[in-house]
């Protein structure tokens, strides 16, 4: 059994000092032992920062809905991979924001990351030429 906190600290230390290979190795081992939102986020972050955006995307694809950090990172991965994934990026960011006040919901849900989540939604809108929001997700205004 892995003691989670020291391993997480070691992973962040590797990431902060650009030792991505060790960060990926340690985060893969941690996630194999402890399947939490935190360890999932660390694994996807290690993949993303090491340039393995496909791995980060596929790691989060079916499991991104739990934490706002994972959903935001999945949104970034989907946005950066290809045009056909813009809808997935938007859906991940607006997953729980299908109300008319989705701006307020996103702001409350993402906390410190809210401005970045909203910026990503704006980038998606600029690329697709459509306004993000509940209408795109099948909810009527």
UniProtKB/TrEMBL annotation:
InterPro entries with a match to the protein in the record? TPR-like_helical_dom_sf
Q: Name one Pfam family in it.
A: ANAPC3
Name of the featured protein: Uncharacterized protein
* Organism superkingdom: Eukaryota
The protein's organism comes out as Molorchus minor
Instruction: Return the Gene3D superfamilies for the record.
Output: Tetratricopeptide repeat domain
